[in-house]
Inverse folding.
């Protein structure tokens, strides 16, 4: 990944023309509405991003003109739908720089992607006495599947630490690695703090001790894209609805030799080679892991979303968001009583914060009344909240459609929250 | 809708007179800000009095005097503190039978449309808790929980 140069949002210099934010905003019909009589400022993309018209149209067009079940259909619509559906697999492989489309498995969400790895690779290869490593910043989706498996198998879960700024402590991670380490399951970006983790270096170090690496790319891929071959991870998961696609569709990338070594996840149609009462054989990856009718329209919608962000250019999106992050960081830091939670050097466009003397739920409620949508709470990262000694944060997470006005509105709404609550 | 308690009528009338949702929202904040720490001492902010499932921490107590239930409560968030104060104030002084007659309509009449759905659900959960206190003849939140297991 090339170093991203933030766009200077204030001066408008550095290729604002290349990224026409007002034109981009036109692509998102939901942003045109008013909330409580105020124009919507949507700063909750980290939870789920809004959808551009092309995604809405793609799903609509699928259902209206060529929808049918995919694979093995002996009629025109099924063939057409299968073609479009399978093209998306190739498109996603290209987007992630996967070796081939066969490395791309369709799941329902990144949560399912991680559970799939836990219940197939993990169940087959982990044993009592082994260790796996997660980090303190993980979303529950990258903790609980391993705990469930731990209950069944009895391996140890080690936790890689962060410092008080939210910076990942690579040295303490290194100290956890040993020949017992069989898996490192780690995010590339904290959904709470925005911290970008050095997953390439983490992967290299993990491979040195023979461990596999699963990267939860839920947040990271949205802000910075990914090159899975450069990263060299064994698994990479992400979810469609956070990258401007539909809900109900997730991706699991896996290296082919690893995928081939894994038993099926769920049994059903489509994932089999031959079924008989004397024994059943299974398809090769990726189909081995895709039982039943898949989320067809969602896959096609995700394809439209991937094309959309690819056309904008992930570097341009990153630069735009980094400009917004810098601007928001500067303004929020200057507000008396505002404490930004997470000050790592390398951050995605996510700002968690607290206001001294207030409860985050009150702050988020006042922001909401000002038309500013944020998220509040533990953000499905309770161990991180415990580490930081807080009950929750207010989180403003930026997307490719946010602009400087959104930051200004957030700042004004914070001012109103202080007036009302303190 | 029959009159419940004078305090309930006061809240309902006050919120009815405010025709602006933002103002109603701020009214709840004002109610919350008026609740002082000493109104619900630290000694009562303990696990047995803690309601589960709330986004912020909410403590509720029931004191039974002469067969009537008197509720008090607290939260670490101002808006919820205001809601707890309004609910506790509105429905205190009722007998067990009167509590059982309360419906979601009584809560809706408070006209708290400025709240998110999640908080409105929380208000209904609080109402159900009051009714359970009534049936149990008092006690603590923890006792209500263990009774319902």
């Amino acid at each position: 990944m090339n170093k991203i140069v933030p766009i200077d949002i204030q001066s408008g210099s550095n290729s604002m023309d290349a990224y026409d934010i007002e034109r981009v905003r036109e692509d998102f019909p939901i942003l045109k509405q008013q909330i409580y009589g105020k124009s919507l400022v949507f700063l909750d993309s980290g939870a789920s991003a809004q959808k551009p018209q092309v995604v809405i149209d793609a799903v609509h067009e699928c259902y209206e003109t060529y929808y049918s079940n995919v694979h093995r259909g002996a009629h025109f619509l099924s063939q057409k739908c299968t073609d479009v559906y399978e093209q998306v697999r190739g498109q996603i492989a290209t987007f992630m720089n996967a070796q081939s489309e066969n490395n791309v498995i369709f799941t329902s969400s990144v949560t399912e992607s991680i559970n799939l790895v836990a219940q197939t690779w993990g169940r087959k290869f982990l044993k009592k006495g082994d260790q796996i490593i997660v980090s303190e910043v993980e979303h529950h989706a990258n903790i609980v599947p391993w705990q469930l498996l731990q209950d069944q198998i009895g391996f140890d879960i080690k936790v890689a630490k962060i410092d008080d700024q939210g910076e990942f402590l690579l040295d303490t991670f290194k100290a956890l690695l040993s020949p017992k380490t069989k898996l490192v399951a780690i995010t590339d970006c904290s959904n709470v703090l925005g911290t970008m983790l050095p997953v390439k270096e983490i992967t290299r170090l993990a491979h040195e001790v023979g461990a596999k690496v699963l990267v939860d790319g839920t947040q990271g891929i949205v802000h910075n894209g990914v090159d899975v071959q450069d990263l060299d991870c064994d698994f990479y998961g992400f979810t469609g609805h956070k990258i401007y696609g539909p809900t109900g569709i997730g991706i699991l990338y896996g290296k082919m030799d690893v995928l081939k070594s894994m038993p099926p996840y769920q049994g059903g149609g489509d994932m089999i080679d031959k079924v008989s009462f004397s024994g059943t054989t299974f398809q090769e990856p990726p189909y081995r892991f895709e039982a039943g009718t898949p989320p067809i329209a969602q896959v096609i919608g995700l394809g439209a979303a991937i094309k959309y962000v690819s056309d904008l250019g992930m570097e341009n999106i990153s630069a735009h968001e980094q400009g917004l992050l810098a601007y928001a960081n500067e303004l929020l830091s200057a507000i008396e009583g505002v404490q930004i939670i997470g000050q790592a050097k390398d951050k995605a466009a996510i700002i968690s914060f607290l206001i001294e003397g207030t409860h985050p739920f009150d702050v988020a409620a006042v922001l909401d009344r000002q038309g500013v949508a944020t998220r509040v709470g533990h953000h499905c990262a309770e161990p991180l909240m415990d580490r930081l000694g807080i009950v929750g944060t207010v989180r403003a997470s930026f997307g490719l459609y946010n602009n400087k006005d959104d930051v200004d509105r957030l700042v004004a709404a914070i001012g109103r929250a202080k007036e009302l609550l303190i | 809708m029959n009159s419940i308690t004078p305090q309930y009528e006061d809240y309902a009338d006050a919120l009815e007179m405010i025709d602006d949702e933002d103002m109603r929202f701020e009214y709840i904040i004002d109610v919350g800000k008026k609740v002082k720490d000493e109104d619900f001492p630290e000694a009562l902010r303990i696990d047995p009095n803690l309601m589960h499932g709330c986004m912020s921490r909410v403590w509720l107590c029931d004191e039974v005097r002469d067969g009537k239930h008197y509720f008090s409560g607290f939260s670490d968030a101002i808006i919820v503190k205001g809601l707890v104060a309004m609910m506790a104030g509105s429905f205190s002084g009722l007998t067990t039978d009167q509590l059982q007659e309360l419906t979601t309509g009584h809560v809706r009449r408070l006209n708290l449309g400025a709240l998110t759905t999640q908080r409105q659900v929380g208000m209904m959960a609080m109402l159900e808790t009051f009714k359970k206190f009534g049936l149990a003849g008092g006690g603590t939140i923890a006792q209500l929980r263990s009774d319902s297991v």
Residues 6-148 of chain B form a domain with the Sufe protein. Chain: A fold (CATH 3.90.1010.10). The first strand of chain B starts at residue 50 and ends at 51. The radius of gyration of chain B is 14 Å. The interface with chain A takes residues 21-22, 25-26, 29, 55-57, 76-80, 114, 116 of chain B (CB under 8 Å).
